[in-house]
Structures are given as structure tokens and as C-alpha cells.
Amino acid sequence: MSRDVNRSELGQFLKARRAELSPAAMGLSETGAPRRVPGLRREEVAQLASISAQYYTRLEQGRLPASAPVLTILATVLRLDDDQRDYLFELAGKESARPRRQKGQQVRPPLQRLLDSLTDIPAMVLGRRMDILAWNPLAAALLTNFSRIPQERRNYVRLVFTDPTVRDRYLDWETTARDCVAFLRMEAARNPDDPRLTALVGELSVQDPHFRQWWAGHHVAHRAFGTKKMRHPVAGELTLDWESLGSAADSDQQLTVWTAKAGTPSAEGLRFLASWAATEQTASWQTDKA
């Protein structure tokens, strides 16, 4: 099969797959205008994939070769199964159709010991892509019970965008969410071939229109400190300073802590939250023991 024939077949395959998806299922609002073809429009697929409509149109028309990163995000957007993903990459003449499994990160033992010693301030260790590697009980009390989330889903950016509990904690959610997107943009520049990062971007682009819009804006940032205003059902409103401390032994691991200025209502709120979390932990341990 010639390269031109392959490109043509790839375009037909993409067209057939988008015809199977409804705008409502993809979180897209209907404009009311009648659709000439079933399924998603080319412009909608491009929007979900954070690429230009012109670029996607040329892919479908067989006028442009597709890169592996674009194919990966299109496979996520079009909800292809493993066989369909393999076929898509084969048509494009690309290898490694399925994302290679990366060795999972493990929190460094010294960081874990430091984390365990921090009993009166929330703290957690973030890894690549802002994956949550470890946390202390007060961080779980502040944000959410991370242990209930499957390990492969424990990602701070994912939780900010998709977890209602975490999302509700931030009084200025939009600023926090934009910072997350800008940080991922920086990470994508450092690790453009990271398949898990590409999959995360594809997943969030499909699920959240804000992420899709902000990712397309190509804004970048990498802040190591700041202030967050939060609301908590037990501790009330909190103004917390956060800081990320990098590990000298592993630049891909950051210890993030939240603190409050001494003598403020937020400091008192953190103390109350720590006492409440300790009580809850004791009750949970007694229940499990029984």
C-alpha cells in the first residue's frame, strides 16, 4: 500500500470514528443548527484535540502526515480501543501505537520520612505530571482522601479539574486550574514524548472545556510558591501560603507544603483541622480493628 493510499485510508478511518460520537457524549453544546453528517464535525474534533481545524482537515484529506503525539491525542479524543489505536498508528507508519509503560515513580525515603514528621501542616510529594506520590494525613483532610483514589488516577491536575470535592476547596478555582495547565505546558516542553502526559492532556481536553481552551492558549508558568484561599467544611475559610521544595537528589519530586501565618484565623483553622483529622483517623482505625 502506497504512502498516499495509507494517508487516504487514515483520513477515512478518522472520519468514520468521529461519525460514531455524539456532541452531547463529548460534552459539547449543540448550536441548534442542523447537522449534515452524523457525529462530530471536523472543527469539534480539532477543538477537543487542541489542534487547528485546518490541520485536522488536512489530516482527514490525506494531505498531511500525522505525528505520533497528534495520533495519541486523537486516539483519546475519538475513544479508540486498543485494536483501533494500533490500526491508526499502522496507517500513519508510526511505531509504538500503545503508550509505553513507564516505571512508576516512588517517593524517595528521605522525603517520606520528612513528610511523616510534618504533623501540623498539610504536605504532599508531587512527581512528574504533578502525580501525587505521597501525602500526610493533614493534606488528605484538607483536600480529599487520596487513598480512595486508584494509584494510576492520583494526579493533582486531574483532581483539580474532575474531582468535585477538590474543585470546591478552592475559592479562586480558575486561578489554580490555570496554573495547573501552565505547569503542564512547561512539562510538555521538557518531556514532549511522555505518553502518560499526552494521555492526561487528551483526557482532560475531552472532559473539561476550560482545560481545552486554556491548553490551546499555550501559556506557561512554573511558580514554586504562592497563596491559596480555600474553603473547608470543617475548618472554614483558610488563607494558606504554599511552597514547593525541590529534591536535590531527584528534580522530578517536589515537597509541597501549606502554612498559615501565626496568630491568624487560618492558623487556628489548621490546628482545628489537624485535631479533627487525628480524631477521624483514630475512629477509622478502631472501626477497622473491630
Automatic annotation (TrEMBL):
Domain (HTH cro/C1-type): residue spans on this chain: 39-85
Gene3D superfamilies in alphabetical order: 3.30.450.180, lambda repressor-like DNA-binding domains
TM helices/strands, residue ranges: none
InterPro entries: Cro/C1-type_HTH (IPR001387), Lambda_DNA-bd_dom_sf (IPR010982), MLTR_LBD (IPR041413)
Pfam families, A to Z: HTH_31, MLTR_LBD
CDD domains in alphabetical order: HTH_XRE (cd00093)
Name the UniProt record assigns to this protein: Helix-turn-helix domain-containing protein
Protein source organism: Streptomyces siamensis
